[in-house]
Amino acid sequence: MTERTYLATKVPAIGLAFWATKLITTGLGESWSDFFNQSLGPVADLAIGLLSFGVFLFLQFKQPKYRVWTYWLTLLSLAVFGTFIADATHGIGLSYVMAFIIYGSALVVTLGLWYRHAHNLSVHTITTNRREMFYWLTVTLTFTLGTAVGDLLAETVHLGFLDTGVYLGLVFLAIIAFRRFAGGRFDTFTFWSAYVLTRPIGASFADYFGYDWHHGILGSAGMSAIWLVGFIGLFAYLLIQEKLVANQLGTLVTED
């Protein structure tokens, strides 16, 4: 692959808006995938997830810098596709423990290859197409590993969806708090640890409120609508922020 350098980093700044949008995206992807599967069937679910992920990932790679719409729509489509893959993996008889081992090993190998190429695993330096390739491969594996972790705790350990979401949510908050006060120490490790956890947290709450809460009164359709409202709100906020930053940079260039 020819090395291509971008004008700026291809991923968003890591802050409260990032984590909130990531959590909502995973929940929406879980609910949407379940809704497509139940209403249209597994083939349509696979087609929607795979095609949308392929299209938006292609558009994401075409951008010279981070853009809100390509990044987050790529991540949303991956959440739909990743849910299907996780369900299919269990459907063919692979246990949650084996899924955890396989996906965890694949993630470690990918991070090792990324480090060998770039000599760091920082998400703040995604400025070449090769680093971006490693980034999205890692993100994909965090979805599959996170799903395995959530399913393992909810079903094999019998915590249930709600307790799994709550307990992992507390671990997630502890990691975010540590990142806030650690002054950059263990930045890469804490980022990817928190990133993996966003998947089972979002999926666990989506499943609990969709199927267990009040005997499943909301269902996948109701939860899809609720998650979508939250996603649209945060997506609009991020687009506005992107526009404001672009205007400020344009003003600075004009004044210079």
In terms of topology, how is this protein built?
Elements: H1 16-40, H2 42-62, H3 68-91, H4 96-118, H5 129-156, H6 160-181, H7 187-212, H8 219-255
Helix pairs in contact: 1-2, 1-3, 1-7, 1-8, 2-3, 3-5, 4-5, 5-6, 5-7, 6-7, 7-8
Give me a quick take on this structure.
The protein is mostly helical. It has eight helices and no strands. Keywords: Membrane, Transmembrane, Transmembrane helix.
Q: Main beta sheet, described?
A: none
Compute the gyration radius: what is it? Answer: 18 Å
Order of helices and strands: HHHHHHHH
Estimated structural class: mainly alpha
Shape: globular
Give the number of domains: 1
Helix content estimate? over 70%
If you average the pLDDT, what whole number results? 91
The total of helices stands at 8
Question: Which residues form runs of ≥5 with pLDDT under 50?
Answer: none
Describe the fold and architecture:
- The structure is a single chain.
- The protein is mainly alpha-helical and 256 residues long.
- The protein has one domain (16-255).
- Helices cover 80% and strands 0% of the residues.
- α1 runs antiparallel to α2 (42-62) and α7 runs antiparallel to α8 (219-255).
